[in-house]
Amino acid sequence: MSVIAVLGAGKIGEALLSGLLHGGHSPDDLLFTERYPARAAELTERYGVHGVGVADAARRADVLVVAVKPQDIEPVLDELAPLLGEESLVVSLCAGLPTALYERRLADGVPVVRVMPNTPMLVGEAMSAVSAGAHATAEHIAVVKDLLSHVGQVVEVPESQQDAVTALSGSGPAYFFYLVEAMIDAGILLGLPRALAGQLIIQSAVGAAKMLAESDEHPVLLREAVTSPAGTTINAIRELEKHGVRAALLAAIEAAKDRSTELGRAHEPRV
Ligand SMILES: NC(=O)C1=CN([C@@H]2O[C@H](COP(=O)(O)OP(=O)(O)OC[C@H]3O[C@@H](n4cnc5c(N)ncnc54)[C@H](O)[C@@H]3O)[C@@H](O)[C@H]2O)C=CC1
Ligand SMILES: O=C(O)[C@@H]1CCC=N1
């Protein structure tokens, strides 16, 4: 089994480590780097996986997964540049950062694969989209797809679609959590105890997600099946339309895509 090193073990780095362990990887095949020693100690205690320095990670790992914030990428590239060659495989999980950035800063020919995952990786339900950089072959893509298939679903997309993917599925879980949070508040408004409102909404979300995943029906048809003539649901739908919730979602997701593009542009060479 390949040795995988996660560079930057924050929320998504931890989700990947945890997901890979649940997916059957041995802690001996996983490494991570982390700038905060207390965080590193916490992860070692929780998962039995060892924190190492970047040089050690580059020497020992077959796959180096970059999971620092896009704003923190520069020192990581400086550290990696003298350590990697064509035999390495770099996988970037960073929102907005193009493979071309890595290719400019690392040695000639280092293969880079850009991935946008999401946090349901923690429970083996990630949605990940992968794109090959200029030096990544079909074999490199196959390695990364195989790795990510242990923690959820994987699709391959042209890199030009990655900012849109980031806005949809990368950030997507946050929109659902936001919606659930607001619906629980509605239960409070109607006088239900918080715990009961939470149970009602979370199980409704789980059931709806399962129906979406398992039935071949379009979401419109699933919604129509809940919406009885002169019933309760249509009154709620009228309010959602009146308050522009659909337009708000379109604008919100477009804003997320714009931010992803901007994060990449921040690292373009100055001319
Ligand atoms: N949180 C999410 O839902 C998703 C995040 N991503 C991407 O994953 C990356 C990480 O995001 P989060 O995990 O949310 O951020 P985070 O801030 O939780 O984690 C980043 C970690 O990297 C560490 N770090 C920073 N510089 C370092 C260095 N030079 N050496 C070693 N460790 C270093 C930090 O101490 C921190 O623990 C970002 O680029 C983000 O765009 C992608 C998909 C989803
Ligand atoms: O908010 C962010 O920038 C990261 C990328 C996708 C999800 N979270």
Automatic annotation (TrEMBL):
Pfam families xref list: F420_oxidored, P5CR_dimer
Gene3D superfamilies registered for this protein in UniProt: NAD(P)-binding Rossmann-like Domain (3.40.50.720), ProC C-terminal domain-like (1.10.3730.10)
- Which EC class heads this enzyme's classification? oxidoreductase
A single MF term (Gene Ontology): pyrroline-5-carboxylate reductase activity
What Enzyme Commission number(s) appear in the record?
1.5.1.2
**Is NADP among the key words of this record?**
yes
Where would I find the Pyrroline-5-carboxylate reductase dimerisation domain in this sequence? Answer: 159-263
Location in the cell: Cytoplasm
Sorted alphabetically, which NCBIfam families does this protein's record hold?
proC
How is this protein named in the record?
A: Pyrroline-5-carboxylate reductase
Q: What is the lineage of its organism?
A: Bacteria, Bacillati, Actinomycetota, Actinomycetes, Pseudonocardiales
